[in-house]
Amino acid sequence: MSDSDCLFCKIIAGEIPSEKVYEDDTTYAFRDINPKAKVHVLIVPREHYANVAELAADDADQLAHMVKVAQRIADDEFHGDYRLIFNTGLDAGQTVFHVHAHVLTGEKLDE
Ligand code: 5GP
Ligand code: ZN
């Protein structure tokens, strides 16, 4: 999939509206449209990678940065605990092929 066809590239570019939670030069975070927890935020690199494996291979610093952003969101919106999920591949439930970290927090989560 090319960037021009990518839903999250369009969200990052502001072509599709989203509820911003955090942004910096490399990274954008916004609320999931179909939240699975009281707080459900998606963190994406501005640069397009299909999945976390591609990101980790090319830019491990960006991946580490996304973890720090997740912590910051959990600190801001809860008391710092959170679940971080990268669905990777169709059979894992990945539906958008622009790497994104799901941050679930804001309440005690089911195990
Ligand atoms: P995946 O299943 O690929 O791991 O996660 C994709 C996530 O993107 C889903 O949780 C879904 O609810 C969310 N999502 C899909 N389309 C939109 C949208 O247009 N806006 C927002 N904010 N979230 C979306
Ligand atoms: Zn993209």
Automatic annotation (TrEMBL):
Lineage top rank: taxon: Bacteria
PROSITE patterns assigned to the protein according to its UniProt record, in alphabetical order: HIT_2
Matching CDD domains: PKCI_related (cd01276)
Catalytic residue list: H100 (tele-amp-histidine intermediate)
The keyword Transport is assigned to this record: no
Molecular function (Gene Ontology), one example: bis(5'-nucleosyl)-tetraphosphatase (asymmetrical) activity
Span(s) of short sequence motif Histidine triad motif: 98-102
Residue ranges occupied by any HIT domain in the UniProt entry: 7-111
EC number(s) from the headed UniProt entry: 3.6.1.17
Protein keywords: Hydrolase
Protein name, per record: Histidine triad (HIT) protein
